[in-house]
Amino acid sequence: MPIITFHKGGQVYRDEVKDNTNLVVRAGIKQFPYPHLRYECGMGKCSKCACRVLAGAQHLPPPNWKEKKQLGERLDAGYRLACQLWVQHDIELAQDETAAA
């Protein structure tokens, strides 16, 4: 089962999740990493859940059209939308304290 390492506000949160887990779905049902993950719509329209991938990016699928539209050049800096990712391998993410536009 994948291990999620999540950095936010100088803290590190770590948890094991079931294969093919979406972190925004888990946050919405009050499971890890709730309440630490910032998110809103869960559909790739708002980019509130944008996270920088620190490790494990090689196991993610290429960005979809929603991520390309919302993140633009931030994709090159390693950002992805957590709501669009279904985690199947270990991953390490960081979320800025304030939403990057």
From TrEMBL:
Signal peptide: none annotated. SUPFAM superfamilies: 2Fe-2S ferredoxin-like. GO terms for molecular function: iron-sulfur cluster binding. InterPro entries: 2Fe-2S_ferredoxin-like_sf, 2Fe-2S_ferredoxin-type, Beta-grasp_dom_sf. Residues 35-85 form the 2Fe-2S ferredoxin-type domain. Pfam families: Fer2. This is 2Fe-2S iron-sulfur cluster binding domain protein. It comes from Variovorax paradoxus.
